[in-house]
Amino acid sequence: MWESVKEFASEFFVTGDPLIYGADVSIVLSMIAIVSVLTYFKKWGWLWREWLTTVDHKKIGIMYILASVLMLFRGGVDALLMRAQLVMPEMQFLSGDHYNQIFTTHGVIMILFMAMPLMFGLFNVIVPLQLGARDVAFPFLNALSFWLFFSGAMLFNLSFVIGGSPDAGWLAYPPYSELAFNPGPGQDFYIWGIQISGIGSLMTGINFIVTILKVRAPGLTLMKMPMFSWSVLSSCIAIVFAFPILTVTLALLFIDRYLGGHFFTLDGGGNPMMYINLIWMWGHPEVYIIVLPAFGIFSEIVATFSRKKLFGYKSMVFAMIIISVLSFLVWAHHFFTMGSGADVNAFFAVTTMLIAIPTGVKVFNWLFTMFRGKITFETPMLWTVGIIPNFVIGGMTGVLLSVAPADFQYHNSYFLVAHFHQVIIAGVVFGFFAGLYYWWPKIFGFMLNERIGRWAFWLWNIGFYLCFMPQYALGLMGMTRRLYTYGWDKGWFEMNLVSTIGAVIMGAAFLVQIWDIAHSIKHMKKDTTGDPWNARTLEWSIPSPAPFYNFAVMPQVTSQDDWHERKLRIEQGLEKPAKVELEPIHMPKNSGIPIVMSMFWFFVGFGLIFDWLWMAVPGFIGVLACMVAHSFNYDTDYYITVEEIKRTEAEAGRVIT
Ligand code: HEM
Ligand SMILES: [Cu+2]
């Protein structure tokens, strides 16, 4: 009996590595700490009522952002571990197996559990405010999306201490991700972690398309809509078409692994290249899904800090839609070496190069917006201006990679690693940082310290160039990706050393950002204006942070950059702050079902990973029960009284007459 318990435990828990034991201890300690703090301060009820059951888009957005910062930390630690192993030839810090696990979890976490939720966080906090709406179209669904993402992320992260991490790369190519070569539970953690959170992403896509098309303030026609909302729309259209492909692909891989299918195995008539085609039919649109909103953010910031209308509004909209369509026609550029022949490769090379045109249009539009503007360089603008050259280099190396015959040389080399980090860090992550600095006062109601913010900016950028520029050269010198060790004879030492130093500087930059937040909380400088940057769009017309109903009165929109125009009219005495008639506001009620249902999904996933049907089946019944319970719940909304609106507005310093 005791023996079998011991045997089970040694397979169930990951053992043998001091890093893991350290993680075990810190997980247990932080759980104890969190539970004791909540109990001591009697905060359980508050946590449940205000956060865990909320359907308020702003709070959901904040939870997304918080989760993504935690994941940035984990993904960043992974990155530093890898760079430590590569710092010099013949390092003995990580074993080959361990290195494989780390680049896999790093890639998955950074893209699916860091970039995606950071983006969804910004969608959530900002889009309804920009549209003059009271919430998203489906607030309950929105909460469910968040909790599904959260369950999926927790499931994936659990593989670090239970069962073992996946190690087949961030896209889990077969045959290596198939059962025959990868029998442990790591790959199943991968499938279920991504599957569960992916359903959440799909629902977010649907939710925001409907919100943008259907829930805009009166007068806000599509062609008057702020550019960030346009970018969200184009990104969500791509989500709705791309994510079902991911769901199906992973389902097929699951059938291969769990039921002995042969979709992607050569024996039995399957074909691994089929998986690789399918996963990139999702994977390439995915990178545009995360970069398009960053383009929207740059557009907002450039206009605000140049004190000018965005140059080329229509061409921006057009470019964004074209990018989201074209992103579905380029997937094979990830495997020009597959052997599909010159015609196929030529097609995908040309479509890839075509994307450079709308992207170039956008870059020129930003530059023309700045031209003759009264530019000021507060942190959001600093990030935006810093990103432009960075992103242009990333884009141009992308064009180099798209030349199919040349790609036979670049393929799977460090040239590629440098390229995709350049677009994904300088385009996506820095873009979301810019958005976070820009909207921070609106989200949290206080200003971030500008001086510390500048330090973070410079450290991130210097660290970035030091880390990734040498990798282009290393790639051309023959260093291949996913390589965990190399010899002294290669001549790669110096550049790898520089690269690791750059990574450490980025790590320091992250800490400076956390310090910036802590410092700013301590020296609380409240944003009493609601419009600290003198900005142009509707979200800045209400107090910071926005009251829970967002707009006390529905704004009547008459032009692009409506808030800017309204400020001008008031200044010129053409418009008096209007007398308004307050009406009770219709709001959705909180619900505990999303978090409970996602917990059941977690059990479904965990049960299937370990082939414990006694857990998976009840989990699934729980999911169905939650659906039924929600269907019969008619108590889903309420009205805020005029009195309460008046009181809330007065507390935010706004008098309503
Ligand atoms: C912040 C600094 C970062 C550093 C120092 C870093 C470093 C690395 C390293 C060393 C690798 C492994 C390369 C190899 O051995 O082939 C890697 C792979 C990867 N990184 Fe990063 N990374 C960073 C940020 C990011 C971010 C922000 C993302 C995405 C949002 C990202 C996405 C990926 C992906 C998808 C892979 C490929 C994993 C695979 O080969 O399966 N990285 N990174
Ligand atoms: Cu691609």
Automatic annotation (TrEMBL):
Q: Where in the cell is it found?
A: Cell membrane
**UniProt keyword list:** Cell membrane, Copper, Electron transport, Heme, Hydrogen ion transport, Ion transport, Iron, Membrane, Metal-binding, Respiratory chain, Transmembrane, Transmembrane helix, Transport
Q: Reply yes or no: does the keyword Transmembrane apply.
A: yes
Could you tell me which PROSITE patterns the record lists for this protein? Answer: COX1 (PS50855)
For this UniProt entry, what is the primary localization, expressed as one broad class?
membrane
Q: Which domain of life is it from?
A: Bacteria
One Gene Ontology CC term in the entry = plasma membrane
- Presence of the UniProt keyword Cell membrane in the record: yes
Identify its membrane topology class: Multi-pass membrane protein
Residue ranges annotated as transmembrane are 20-41, 62-82, 102-127, 139-162, 189-215, 227-255, 317-334, 346-368, 380-404, 416-440, 452-473, 493-515, 592-610, 616-634
The entry lists its GO molecular-function terms as: cytochrome bo3 ubiquinol oxidase activity; cytochrome-c oxidase activity; heme binding; metal ion binding
> Which cofactors is this protein said to need?
ferriheme a; Cu cation
Looking up InterPro entries in the UniProt record yields: Cyt_c_oxase-like_su1_dom (IPR023616), Cyt_c_oxase-like_su1_sf (IPR036927), Cyt_C_Oxase_1 (IPR000883)
| Pathway membership | Energy metabolism; oxidative phosphorylation
Domain spans labelled Cytochrome oxidase subunit I profile: 40-558
The catalytic activity, as recorded, is: 2 a quinol + O2 = 2 a quinone + 2 H2O
Q: Which Pfam families match?
A: COX1
- Its GO biological process terms? aerobic respiration; electron transport coupled proton transport; respiratory electron transport chain
Q: Which family does it belong to?
A: Belongs to the heme-copper respiratory oxidase family.
Q: What is this protein called?
A: Quinol oxidase polypeptide I
What organism does this protein naturally occur in? Brevibacillus antibioticus
